[in-house]
Specification:
The chain has 447 residues and is an all-beta fold. Strands 1-4-7-10-13-16-19-22 form an eight-stranded parallel β-sheet, with no helix packed on it. Strands 2-5-8-11-14-17-20-23 form an eight-stranded parallel β-sheet, with no helix packed on it. It has a seven-stranded parallel β-sheet with strand order 3-6-9-12-15-18-21, with no helix packed on it. Strand 27 and strand 28 form a beta hairpin. The longest helix is centred in the middle third of the chain and has 5 residues. The two termini are 48 Å apart.
Length: 447
């Protein structure tokens, strides 16, 4: 969860595993800024769950070594993402290899790695085989200059997605049995999100018999076969969550497809949607979404979590239809935010955390109305605190709940106001504190 950073300082081998200097497992690190990220010689460690990036020559280098290379993200290295040489036959499984200058995976001089269920994107050449015969199965090779290049050896290709528009799919060999040549439909290739969109031709298109028996999960730790057949690539598609409650119960990255939710707040790049029965709601982020309060929204995207601990949908598409404005729920200030949802798990990354001292049901995301006396006004004009005698304080120890209203005219200290806004949260240290987000000037009414 909290990865250690191993930085090479611009030169040398950041991690070295060779005979006499043995590393049994290299697991869970950020490895960067060397000449070579991980160097293996005559030794075969387990290399798993690492981020390997910004090395000037090699991400992972194998010489007469056959490590298990699983669940890593290798990106932005100089010429070579993974280099396999001289009888090296590592298993290369569930990795993303992207943005490397010359080659994503290079197999040289009788090196025959077993390449299964990887996503190799945006390299000069996806996989190059020189005098090597690797089996390459269930792997996406997309948006590279060349997909697969062979110069000697007999690579065996089966059930891959090879799609390299503007370049070459195959050089020196032909398509393998079950290979497809179609856009894999990534969620957001520009941002490095290589999950598969619904409708991707890679879904249920892989070869089940090629998946190792020990490979039970994908790069996200999700079940490997969620459909009728294994997917092609490092990520297995998951059935989207279709209700707000289920969506918030999913981990970050969980696909979401919401229909029939009502928009209760809308800013330029952020909106909130709520079930018509007002049972639960969720924040949605989509630049220039164009929706307005009262519309019925259709949203697709993936779950994520803000830096302040609020679950939200990072939307890939939104649309709206005519609807009706929902009224707010009335509550005391001690109830704003509420406790955690029943499915909340800090270690599992599921559900919505509650606020410190939160009472009752979790209501983060819902449109609520409350009232009280203004106890503090931010000199910068961004927020004020409102208090009704409930035992609630903000992160600075001031009485009341913080009301966030940037760009609006704030009430004065000592005034009594009725406030309508979105129940939200702000993080300080490891605690969440309640926050109200008002939408317009009319959401603050003096008594």
């Amino acid at each position: 969860v909290n990865k250690s950073i191993l930085d090479g300082g611009g030169s040398g081998r950041v991690v070295e595993a060779r005979c006499g200097y043995r590393a049994g497992g290299i697991d869970g690190f950020v490895i960067r800024n060397g000449e070579t990220g991980i160097y293996c010689s005559l030794f075969s460690p387990t290399i798993a769950n690492n981020s390997v990036s910004v090395n000037t020559q090699y991400g992972i280098y194998c010489w007469d070594s056959s490590p298990s290379i699983t669940n890593n993200v290798l990106s932005g290295t100089g010429p070579y993402g993974i280099w396999c040489e001289y009888y090296s036959s590592p298993s290369i499984t569930n990795n993303v290899v992207s943005g490397n200058g010359l080659y994503g995976i290079y197999c040289y001089w009788e090196a025959s790695p077993v390449v299964t269920n990887n996503t190799v994107v945006g390299n000069g050449t996806g996989i190059r085989c020189d005098m090597s015969s690797p089996p390459i199965t269930n792997t996406i090779l997309a948006f590279n200059g060349t997909g697969v290049y062979r110069s000697g050896g007999s690579p065996v290709l089966r059930s891959n997605c090879v799609y390299n528009p503007g370049g070459t799919n195959y050089s020196g060999l032909s398509a393998g049995a079950g290979d497809i040549r179609a856009d894999p439909l990534f969620v957001n290739r520009a941002e490095g999100d290589f999950h598969l969109l619904p409708g991707s031709p890679c879904i249920d298109a892989g070869l089940d018999s090629a998946v190792p028996a020990w490979l039970l999960t994908d790069l996200d730790g999700k079940p490997r076969v969620s459909g009728t057949r294994v997917d092609i690539g490092a990520y297995e598609s998951q059935p989207p969550k279709t209700s707000i409650a289920d969506a918030r119960g999913g981990t970050d990255g969980t696909p979401v497809s919401l229909r029939g939710a009502v928009v209760t707040a809308a800013w330029a790049d952020v909106l909130y949607v709520e079930q018509p029965d007002r049972a639960c709601a969720v924040r949605v982020e989509k630049a220039g979404h164009g929706l307005s309060v009262g519309q019925i929204a259709s949203i697709t995207g993936r779950m994520s979590t803000t830096a302040d601990g609020e679950r939200f949908v990072q939307a890939t598409s939104v649309s709206g239809a005519p609807g009706a404005v929902l009224p707010p729920l009335d509550m005391s200030l001690r109830s704003v935010g509420g406790g955690p949802t029943a499915d909340y798990s800090a270690s599992g990354g599921t559900g919505q955390a509650g606020v410190i001292g939160g009472a009752g049901l979790n209501n983060i995301g819902l449109l609520v109305r409350t009232a009280g006396r203004v106890t503090f006004v931010d000199p910068g004009g961004q927020f004020f605190n409102v208090w009704d005698g409930s035992p609630v304080k903000d992160s600075e120890g001031r009485e009341g709940v913080r009301v966030y209203a940037p760009g609006l005219t704030l009430p004065g200290a000592g005034e009594f106001v009725v406030v309508t806004g979105i129940s939200s949260c702000v993080k300080s240290g490891q605690q969440l504190y309640p926050l109200l987000r008002v939408r317009t000037q009319g959401d603050m009414v003096a008594l």
